[in-house]
Amino acid sequence: MSVTSDKRAPGVRISDLSVVYRTPAGELPAVRGIDLELVPGTITGVVGESGSGKSTLALSLLNAVQPPGRISAGSVEIDGLGDVVALGGDDLRRARGRHVGYVFQAAQSSLNPLKTVGKQLLDLGRSHDVEDLPGLVKEARSLLDRMGMDGARVLDSHQHELSGGMRQRVGIMLALVLNAHLVVLDEPTTALDMITQATILRIIREVHEERGLTTLVITHDLGVVAEVADRLAVMYGGRVVEQGPTREVLGDPRHPYTRGLLQAIPRLVGDIDEARALPGRPPTLGTIPADGCVFRERCAVRMDVCETGEPPVLTQGPRIVACHAADMGPEAVTEPAKERQTVTAGVGDTPTTGEEQA
Amino acid sequence: MITGKGITKTFRQRGGMLGGREVKALRGVDFTIEKGGAVSFIGESGCGKTTLGRILAGLESYDSGEIVIDGVPMSSLRQKSRQPHFRRIQLIHQDPYSALNPARTIHQALDAPLSLRAKQTGRSRAWMEERAEELLSLVGLDPGYVLPRYPHQLSGGMRQRVVIARALTVDPDMLVADEATSMIDVSLRLGILALLKDLRDRLGVSVLFITHDVATARYIGLDGELYVIYRGQVVERGPVETVIADPVHPYTQSLLSAIPVLHGLEVPGEERVVPTEAVDPSQQDAACLFAARCPFRTERCVSELPVLGHDGGTLQEHACFHPQRRSVVATPAVQL
Amino acid sequence: MTATTIMPEARTASATLRRNFWRGVWRVMKRKPSRMVGVVIMAGFAFMGIFGPMLYPERLPRDTSALYAAPSWAHPFGTDFEGTDVLALVVTGSRYVLLTGLVTAVITVVLGAGIGLFAGFRRGRWDSVLMRITDMKLTIPGLPLLLVLSTIWKFTSAIEMGLVLGLLGWGGVARAVRAQTLSLRERGFVEAARGLGLSTTHIIGKELLPSMAPYIAMNMLIAVTGAVYAQVGLFFLGVLPFEANNWGVMLNLAVFGGGALTTTAALPYLLAPLLAILLLTLGIVLVVDAMDEIFNPRLREE
């Protein structure tokens, strides 16, 4: 965990968060019963495949889940902002940008092609009632310079004049320029080249340290998380199945899914036959099992109890795993799924509403 | 066997007759792909690797150079009669979502090329039906499930398998897989890679693998060759393991250094090379193409263009005046 | 196993596909009641156009004792200046109007989609030439041309009328279809078809056309309304001689002969054809709404 003197880096506590989507087949959960804490001043990485609910989780942080989806239960407490699930209207709009900076999944294509970056920056400033627009431009320019670009020139450019990596940096600038201290990056390096990706990841790390941020990185790529994140949460079928310090989780994965995912990545050295594909395929909204473990159909160590029993949440120090088969050693704390509480130490009890599945 | 010699291709960007900017996508690329072999092209986007794949699949023309397919030089043929030869090279698209027509079932998608094939070889409808089922089984799909379905009813991984099965309908000699797994879920990628590897063994199909992910290239063809392309020039070429373990060109080293390290599971290489960022590609040609970004450049690099060769007694070929082996790749810290 | 024993199997497969398609169409239609209303209205007009005129004698009976009669059970929309039943006029006049609309729509879509597809797929010289022609065609003002044409041509048959309107109307469709073709031809599945060596006919007919089907179907339906407005307008303005029984003729006579705008007597005579046009448009608009879902297998199946 990086220690920053900046006290403004907010902490975030997500408690028992559930998001459902309305479909012809009824309301289906995209995210279910998630407990996750973003420690102030750290980078948390959320890893998951398509349909794991990771992007929905990111949107929940802004209370920006679009219909037909809605947050059906739980809370998202952000320091200095309160529970964003309860926020609405103008308060919510102001919070986005000022408190929470969001870099969209397709940041490379989310700029308006008809306006220069500078014009879009001013639009952003005006919509957030920024009085000191010259100051905003100055801040933007210094941010861009910081990220290794010619700020003045970039502000005068249109989207098509910038490369993918430059657009991504513009996206980061727009997320930070209103002085947000909580930043969410959704797939920040997808569609970028290896070298550009490495540069962007380095920039994310550096800017994070310098500005004293709390950062959440959403990605499908374990490598990206490994490079930037202090903590790692692995999502599958709308659940967080494992979380803990990145190095510990990667070095000693406890959940069969995390282990399978790591094994499925071809490596640059060693025996290529060590790489093994995970059988089956990730569930979609409609095929996520309602009871029992969401991963059981692809699991190598599945047992009878996985069919029906909600996996217990096992905690050992900073590591948390939700699995019937995980062996966390004698000192592990087991919490039966039924009476799950907030598991991270030092977090106040938040009242949870409904939606505890049988 | 498929060989290419001095393939060049220049794109003229829009701007009309007056102000069109030229982009040299390929600057004289040589390559050889054995029957059943595997060759991987790695490089950044815009380096020309995709263009080469499209040229080989007959979807793009080339300006100069010679392509020889199974002993037949393409220059000896008229444009029209080249097509059947290029058809023996099938492109697997990066995006399995757009590679299948959303309005047509898998049965229809396979039927069209199969009926063409049946007409050429004088086979019956029965053969077509059988062949469709055979090919789907070959790529690991259940024909009964897949055939009547529309693409949107299948997952990305299944779609990519259908695309591969469709490419196999014409009994190709080579598959060109252009970032064929980049849009597929991480846990399913290895399955597609393993399938391509398997097709090499079982059908003797050679695979040209185009990617920026070196590890997947290694997985497909440990016995194959790796070509590293930078701005249309092959800057390093050699056996996969050699290029990965002992890269000599600073660009290859930069690419390999940029691969994320799974900290906790791996230890980063000691001599990682961090290049400066991509610069405006309008520099003059009488210099090493990578010189502007190279941390090790000298006077010579900016006044002369290095050519591919074994200078300095390296195992692999390279285009660098100062070849120097550096260990940049991460090594495992623990065994899973 | 011989080919002959398998052939029926293959045929069943495509028959199943067709059956599934129509089942899907039914599902899409049922999704919104408004669509069913649209279908019923359109079916009603089709019935009227095909069988309606058969219900009446060649020369409609006149009741000279009841000129401009008010609506009654015998004459739901009253009678005209000669004492002819207005409803009968609307029904017998529908055939010309609808047939014209149909012919126009078919010509617009066939010419427009054909030229657009060909230009977009071939690109290069063909594209330039065809699009220049299209541009030229688009600059020809339709109404003045029709005025000129009507001086030498009587448009006694609906097919002639439809032909002229169709030839005047394909430009917009051609441009739009060409634009779509240009973007579609870069799509993976079209490239794959080229790489597999499939014929141009296959690519255009089986790959590109189905992807544009909703758009083309929509245009076709909208072209029907366009054609109805255009010809009714022409007859209303009195540009064309009153040879045929036609809604436009009725409007013209109601306004200029019956003074429907100033007196109430001829009002039903004016309103009846207007109502027919309105209903037809409504039916088409309600059905157009379903086109996207009908031709997109994903939306159709769900």
UniProtKB/TrEMBL annotation, chain C:
Enumerate the spans annotated as ABC transmembrane type-1 domain: 94-288
Tell me what topology the record assigns in the membrane: Multi-pass membrane protein
Q: Which UniProt key words apply to this protein?
A: Cell membrane, Membrane, Transmembrane, Transmembrane helix, Transport
CDD domains assigned: TM_PBP2
The keyword Membrane belongs to this UniProt entry's keyword annotation: yes
InterPro entries given in the database record: BP-dependent_transpt_permease, MetI-like, MetI-like_sf, OppC_N
| Keyword match GTP-binding | no
Task: Look up the coiled coil feature and give its residue ranges.
Answer: none
Q: Where in the cell is it found?
A: Cell membrane
Family to which this protein belongs: Belongs to the binding-protein-dependent transport system permease family.
Q: What is this protein called?
A: ABC transporter permease
Q: To which species is this protein native? A: Microtetraspora glauca
